[in-house]
Specification:
about 475 residues, two-stranded antiparallel ribbon, 18 helices, two-stranded antiparallel sheet, Serine Threonine Protein Phosphatase 5, Tetratricopeptide repeat, globular, mainly alpha
């Protein structure tokens, strides 16, 4: 966390300099002479704050370790041996110690985003609101609250215990840093305190951001409500998860018809520049060639679960030597998982919440609204369920089929669903004739905090048995 904060000064210097060059040539020499530290580099104009928030660290490389840990793929022995980065090898086999002295991007990149959010939140309060700048002001403020919430949500899913209402008052969360200052001795907040802060930030963002934005890397009120739905799903607050999922979909509910996209193409989905129409807010996880290389393969049970008329089977996968490899990233890139929010996830959150609340008929209607856009024209028969439990089982199955490489969803779903014996799963990977397992509710569902962070701050480490 301290390390991430210290790197932000360089980002600020570069961002303000670029912004200033477009504003006034007279300022160029002034900014060139600024020292690269937080005390001497301070954004002042609303457009400078927005430029800082648009910096690519805020939407790119949002994490890799949770994807490696939980995504439904496996490596051949040759592919595993070819991995040169020890942290990836250790994460793939769920080792107790994974870093080998290296720093974890999952920790650092999210704290970088949080640092930027804190800087802009402090700075924007010094700016007077006028009728002419109110919209831009609210975009900066709302975006900052959204980024801080998203950063902390990513962190607690990776580095803290899963939310448990019985223990969240004492379970250790992560370091809550709410100001630009980083010299104070930090400590880990509780999981409850982290969730409370996330909800507070997202509530503010949902209130002041516009319903939609033209730029998908800038969050909207719809994105904030969608993320609130996700938060409440993790908290098992089904009523609030359904409420915010519905509000998000009331603002934006577009789904792609897979019958009219090039599902057999190597890259079937649009890039950020070309705007995937389902994307509400765009972000990327860290890329890895291991997800898509000819030496890595998708869980055959998952692949075979798609009906031949289910167009996701061709849109999300390609075959190599008759074995499936994933290709359907919503980033429109070949090896970079999508880490933002899209409407397909929100339909599934709403459907699951309705089933959890006992309304199986409405839950299936929502699920079918999604699935009819995924099947070959004229072949889809709406799914039915006779009770809430049957509806829930079908929704969970479709969630796994719809979102296999979306952010840290596979990881989060394993953590929360492993608490229920109906959905608990043991993961297995075989490397060089050794079988590695990740049991339900294992302590290895909490990543270790980077060693360097422990050394710098003295905060307690997560114990992995």
């Amino acid at each position: 966390m301290k390390r991430a904060y210290k790197k932000i000064s360089i980002i600020i210097t570069q961002t303000i300099l670029v912004c200033t060059l477009f504003i006034s040539c007279k300022k160029q020499q002034e900014w060139l002479e600024i020292k690269a530290n937080l005390n001497s580099v301070t954004p002042e104009r609303i457009n400078e704050f927005q430029a800082l928030l648009d910096y690519d660290v805020n939407f790119m490389g949002k994490g890799l370790l949770t994807v490696i840990s939980a995504a439904p793929y496996y490596l051949t022995n040759d592919q595993f041996n070819a991995i040169t980065v020890g942290i990836e090898r250790n994460t793939y086999t769920w080792n107790k110690q994974i870093y080998e002295g290296r720093f974890a991007s999952d920790w650092e990149v999210n704290y970088k985003t949080i640092a930027i959010a804190n800087i802009t939140l402090e700075g924007i309060l010094k700016t007077a609101i006028t009728p002419s700048n109110k919209s831009a002001y609210n975009q900066v403020k709302g975006t900052s609250h959204y980024f801080r919430a998203a950063g902390y949500l990513n962190l607690i899913q990776a580095f803290s215990k899963h939310y448990d209402a019985n223990t969240y008052n004492t379970d250790l969360g992560v370091i809550l840093q709410l100001t630009p200052e980083f010299n104070k001795q930090p400590k880990r907040a509780t999981v409850k305190q982290c969730y409370d802060q996330i909800i507070e930030d997202l509530t503010i963002a949902a209130t002041i951001l516009p319903n939609t934005t033209d730029n998908q890397i800038r969050p909207s009120s719809t994105a904030a409500k969608a993320l609130l739905a996700n938060v409440y799903l993790l908290m098992e607050r089904w009523d609030l998860a359904e409420k915010f999922a519905s509000e998000a979909l009331n603002n934006y509910a577009v789904l792609m018809d897979f019958n009219i996209i090039p599902i057999t193409a190597n890259i079937p989905f649009a890039t950020l520049q070309n705007k995937n129409p389902e994307v509400i807010y765009y972000a990327e996880m860290s890329g890895s060639s291991n997800f898509v290389s000819n030496g890595s393969f998708i869980d055959s049970t998952l692949y075979q679960s798609y009906h031949n008329n289910d167009l996701r089977k061709s849109a999300l996968f390609r075959l190599f030597n008759n074995r499936p490899i994933f290709k359907g990233f919503y980033t429109g890139k070949t090896a970079t998982p999508f880490g933002g929010i899209a409407t397909n996830e929100i339909y599934l959150i709403k459907a699951e919440s309705l089933a959890r609340l006992g309304d199986h008929s409405s839950a299936m209607n929502v699920l079918n609204s999604l699935l009819q856009k995924r099947w070959r024209n004229g072949t889809f028969t709406p799914l039915t369920a006779s009770n809430a439990n049957e509806a829930l089982s079908k929704i969970i199955e479709e969630r796994r089929k719809e979102l296999p490489f979306t952010g840290n969803i596979a990881w989060c779903d394993l953590r929360r669903l492993n608490k229920d014996v109906r959905f608990a799963r043991t993961l297995k990977r075989v490397v060089l004739n050794t079988v590695y397992e990740l049991a339900p509710n294992s302590s290895k569902y909490i990543l270790p905090i980077p060693d360097e962070e422990i050394r710098l701050t003295g905060i307690p480490q997560n114990i992995r048995e």
